[in-house]
């Protein structure tokens, strides 16, 4: 998966230079959409860390995503007490994640006294309280409902205070980075942002994976499978759930921070709103609960569908309108022209089809993409795929 993500920009640019360019633009996600896949995929992984491995659905997870995003922007603007403006992004990113982890401890200390749907609802309640606070708090912006913007230079991912080992990220499409890290490679800043954010996402993935494969992670799974039995054998499940919630909030804030670094602006509706958590829930279900990497596949699936059905140039609707002859577009199709059908049933209808696909996944593929693949292989892909391929070599 990591190799595929690493090679994607090169393969995409190569396809754009071939006669297959219209099809590549129509059916393959653009690099800007792949950047979205990275930070939303990381947020979905943080959601899966607590919900998929302990069985406690956190409907208020957007609170941590928004905390990380706003902390980075406010720190970049010199509005966080004790943190001077110009502090390296990587430092403010970690500090924002720590703040989100502490916030998770506060929310969890109350929420984990409940279980099931009551836990989900109380976390949603906490998140909505924070959302309304940010929407009306003049300190974060002169117009809180519209959010805040990073002022000054772009934020950099890399080694703090070492410019040669840092990469600026942000929406700077059209410009280029020459002689990247002294390697003689020229890349667009969109691709540079893609790789820089990718390093953060991969690092967070391996960190969460290591935690899940530790004794601590085994207790998380024991809580999911049978919390009463885990408590009966002597594990303080309340403390383990709190710690897992704090870790999940930490990585959720990292996702929010890299989102803020790339977009250079934040708004309450795009960070703290409960639908941000709903998106993570949908992508996790499609990718596979309790798989950690599954939410990335789910995010890639949903973002890819949105890109293919986008109303912007390059979507499949644009390909059909520009590639089909006029007489074909004007042909009658159940009482309407093909062009009208494309405009009404294809162009920009990603939410409609995503809803249908989501229902189908819940009914027929409840374990998600990666979960179903693991079931078919009899274990994780990394462990079972070599044996599976070896079988066909014989």
From TrEMBL:
CDD domains: TM_PBP1_LivM_like. GO terms for cellular component: plasma membrane. Keywords: Cell membrane, Membrane, Transmembrane, Transmembrane helix. This is Inner-membrane translocator. The chain crosses the membrane at residues 26-44, 56-76, 88-107, 191-208, 242-262, 352-373. It comes from the Archaea. One of its GO terms (molecular function) is branched-chain amino acid transmembrane transporter activity. Its main location: membrane. It is a multi-pass membrane protein. It is found in: Cell membrane.
